[in-house]
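Extended Data, record Flavocytochrome c
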Amino acid sequence: YAAGPDAVVIGAGGAGLSAAVTLSDLGRTVVVLEKMPMIGGNTVRAEGGINAAETPLQKKLGIPDTIDQFYKDTMKGGHNLNDPELLRTMTTHAKDSVAWLESLGADLGAVGRSGGAKYPRAHRPTDGSAIGPEVIRVLYKAAKDRKIEMRTQNRVVELLTDKSGAVAGVKVSTKDGKTYTIDTKAVVIATGGFGANQDLLVKYQSKLKGYATTNHPGATGDGILLAEKIGAATVDMKEIQAHPTAAPNGTLISESVRGDGAILVNADGKRFTNELLTRDAVSAKELEQPGKFAWVVWDDATRKTAKLMDSYKKLGLTVEGNTVADLARAMNVPAANLKATMAQYAKDQAAGKDSQFGRPELLQPLTQAPFFAVKVQPAVHHTMGGLKIDTKAEVLNTEGKAIPGLFAAGEVTGGVHGGNRLGGNAQADIVTFGRIAGQSADAWLKTLK
Ligand code: ADP
């Protein structure tokens, strides 16, 4: 491109690749810059599905879901902090995002229920496999088919503007430390969240000090910092979703394990909380424990209620014992304490009342051998806040005006999810707004001479 490509997309996750493919289909030349050696970002780690309402699959299965219900559920799940217009945009167009992914070859033949959703609306591969790899697989293939140039290990370090304040290009740093610039009139920021940037996390939420993360190491909030330097506004930066039960390698131990009956004990073999409090509250209690970690403990009767627990065993995350004393040894906690804890819990369960912490539901006595435990710690999972955008994915400045030529989509933006993101909505967000960012960048380029 003698005069640079029409557009540059920063970040090769789900949002960035959706924008790039859209731009290419509109006849634009585009270069995707990705700082990591691999494409996929956090997107490729996504496990659930892609939420959408009023899809052909739902209709075929007789699921009476509506876009309005999708909107309501998400607004409630986000503690009513969601930006109504952005949320309306996502919930209205998510079904088109599903159809678009299918047109690119995605298998989204199954639909399941995720937390906070009134109806099953999490679309996923027919064999029940994870959504993230499927989304990245088809978007990567689409980008290759269109001969879109994707440069890995190319990190954007600065956004360049002209005298009028419009975007004029990007400055890029390569793996050998060289920098170069690309001239372009349209930039889509799709750099993801900041869930792996301790400094930034603690700046906005001091209580997150010491948290692990379920995020990929590239989730450092670069796009937010780059855009702020040229006047962009941010929104909801404090809204950070923590999860209390991440294994040391970052694997999430699902909330449903506790919901199905498991308890939490600390390094002394003692319970310390009502295990069914909100994610934030349980995380905070965990950090007050010696070593700032806990064990999720369940028995064989509980294991039989959910396949998930076997999967943790397959991943090598569980320790087990044929007696509580054996389990205590495997966990390296005092056996006498753990025995007393389990005995007290069984007694409370029989009485139907948690005498210590007021847990509202005691589904299992936890008395059936063998016994299992997974070591867990709180981890940052999703950053809801980020760059302030409008429904056209234009990045707004602190006066609420669009910065000419600058667009953003995906986890780098804020407002869509309010105070809490529901499972299945990350994919709906990134593909929907990634496509919109591509369309808007094209529309902007049309207005130039
Ligand atoms: P989303 O879900 O919003 O698409 P992802 O985390 O999946 O977000 O993808 C964001 C991608 O952007 C990641 O692959 C990340 O490595 C990349 N990225 C982050 N910062 C930069 C940067 N400064 N330059 C280039 N790529 C970046």
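Summary. The radius of gyration is 23 Å.
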